[in-house]
Amino acid sequence: AHSTALDEHRGRLLDRERQNGVLEGKLHALGSEAEVLRSRVKDLEEQVRKAEVFAEQHRQENGQLERDLEGTKAVASKHKEVVEWRAAGGRTAEEEDEEERLRREAEEADRRIKAKGCGLSLRRLVGGRRAAVAGA
């Protein structure tokens, strides 16, 4: 009876040792899997960080491109206005000043010519020339 009790006790100890071995194996496998998963999480976090930096760079570049586009559109609009104004006969202040200077010179020349008794008028000649140039 005593040897039977010892055999049963030994059997239980062996079963427990086997169970402990199985549990230690599972623990080791789970530890290894957890380490692989931690490494994977770290890699994914790094990818997310890089993607966020990349996205921010693109947002900034897009914002700058949009500002550049708006500026270019404004310049193009201004140029279009100037071209339309010029096509409609608009003149700059410099052009008007130059025309005034030429008019004064023509009047002075007319006075000198009239003082000498000649019937020609430079203003009429210049005015006729302008009309011919404008018609061409």
Can you walk through the features of this model?
- By secondary structure, the chain is an all-alpha fold.
- The protein is built from three helices and no strands.
- The chain has helices spanning 2-87, 93-116, 122-135.
- The radius of gyration is 50 Å and the shape is rod-shaped.
- It starts with a helix and ends with a helix.
How many separate helices?
3
Q: What order do the helices and strands follow?
A: HHH
> Largest sheet, if any?
none
pLDDT averaged over residues:
86
Helix content: over 70%
Content-based structural category: mainly alpha
So what's the oligomer here? single chain
Count of strand segments: 0
Unreliable parts:
none
| Gyration radius, rounded | 50 Å
Distance between the termini: 136 Å
Overall, the morphology is rod-shaped
Portion of residues in beta strands equals: under 5%
Can you lay out the helices and strands and say which pair or pack?
Elements: H1 2-87, H2 93-116, H3 122-135
For this entry, give a set of tags.
136 residues; mainly alpha; 3 helices
In short, what is this structure?
The protein is mostly helical and 136 residues long. 91% of the residues lie in helices and 0% in strands.
